């Protein structure tokens, strides 16, 4: 079943910048059908373009309507986004459930987003068949317009088979013999630089070097040891002359 992506309907949006940011959020997740209901500052709006950050195709295709009813007239499924139910008895679902419903049922879908300051009015919500809301901090339930759009767009995109960035093939790990050769080379250079001192700690220090060179997640002592290695190699000494101090004795 070939179901069209949902339309994003901004109801009485106030700032061109917010329209542009919403367009950017839409295109990030493959949505391009932007509908504007009575934008406060008219349309086109010069503030939208820069805020869209390249999502020009969404702005160019945007359509303006006088009412919510006109904007969703061709849609079989209308969702109203709100954190308040406003006393309207309708099914209440989250963005993930809405995305499943949009993909599962034939006919176009629209998602309504209200003005930045007040959100959708009761009459706007009444037009919708389903209320779409998200779990949010009850003490701070304020999402900006683009954030609300991106939540819905992201959930829809997860089932839309959008192209993923190409995977980068990693080189295979080096054979153990090559790793041993590198460590032996470092040991020889450190011997020449006078790093291993005092002599009775040489086996322990070499063991620590091998350990830190062959594992992730270095601890503080290992980092200090490697810093001592780099210092010794940067300032080589005559063979056999001990250094005044090194990290392995700290």
How would you sum up this structure, described in words?
This protein is α/β, with parallel strands linked by helices. It is built from 10 helices and 7 strands. Strand 1 (7-11), helix 1 and strand 2 (34-37) form a beta-alpha-beta unit. The longest helix has 18 residues, at 176-193.
Keywords:
Alpha/beta knot, single chain, 7 strands, 250 residues, alpha/beta, 7-stranded parallel sheet
Outline the fold blueprint:
Elements: E1 7-11, H1 16-28, E2 34-37, H2 48-52, H3 56-61, E3 63-65, H4 68-71, E4 77-81, E5 92-93, H5 95-104, E6 109-113, H6 122-127, E7 130-132, H7 145-157, H8 176-193, H9 202-213, H10 220-234
Parallel strand pairs: 1-2, 1-6, 2-3, 4-6, 4-7, 5-7
> What class, by secondary structure content?
alpha/beta
* CATH fold group of the largest domain: Alpha/beta knot
Along the chain, the helix and strand elements come as EHEHHEHEEHEHEHHHH
Percent strand: 5-15%
Question: Any idea what the CATH architecture of the largest domain is?
Answer: 3-Layer(aba) Sandwich
Largest sheet: 7 strands, parallel
CATH superfamily of the largest domain: SPOUT methyltransferase, trefoil knot domain
Oligomer: single chain
Number of helices: 10
Q: Based on CA inertia axes, which overall geometry fits?
A: elongated
Mean pLDDT: 84
CATH C-level class of the largest domain is Alpha Beta
Low-pLDDT runs of 5+ residues are: none
Radius of gyration: 31 Å
Report the helical percentage. Answer: 40-55%
Distance between the termini: 68 Å
- Give the tally of structural domains: 2
How many strand elements?
7
- Which sequence of strands runs across the widest sheet? 3-2-1-6-4-7-5
């Amino acid at each position: 079943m070939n179901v069209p992506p949902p339309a994003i309907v901004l109801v009485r949006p106030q700032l061109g910048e917010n329209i542009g940011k919403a367009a950017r959020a839409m295109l990030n997740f493959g949505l391009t059908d932007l509908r504007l209901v009575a934008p406060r500052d008219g349309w086109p709006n010069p503030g939208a373009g820069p805020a869209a950050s390249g999502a020009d195709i969404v702005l160019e295709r945007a359509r303006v309507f006088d009412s919510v009813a006109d904007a969703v007239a061709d849609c079989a499924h209308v969702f109203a986004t709100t954190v308040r139910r406003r006393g309207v008895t309708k099914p209440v679902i989250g963005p993930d459930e809405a995305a499943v419903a949009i993909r599962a049922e034939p006919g176009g879908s629209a998602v309504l987003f209200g003005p930045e300051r007040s959100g959708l009015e009761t009459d706007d919500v009444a037009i919708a068949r389903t209320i779409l809301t998200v779990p949010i901090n009850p003490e701070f339930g304020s999402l900006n317009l683009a954030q609300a759009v991106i939540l819905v767009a992201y959930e829809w995109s997860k089932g839309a088979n959008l192209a993923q960035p190409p995977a980068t093939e990693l080189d295979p790990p080096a054979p153990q013999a090559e790793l041993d050769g590198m460590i032996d080379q470092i040991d020889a250079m450190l011997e020449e630089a006078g790093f291993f001192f005092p002599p009775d700690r040489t086996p322990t220090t070499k063991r620590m070097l091998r350990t830190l060179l062959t594992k992730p997640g270095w601890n503080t002592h290992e980092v200090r040891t490697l810093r001592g290695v780099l210092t010794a190699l940067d300032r080589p000494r005559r063979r056999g002359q001990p250094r005044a101090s090194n990290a392995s004795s700290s």
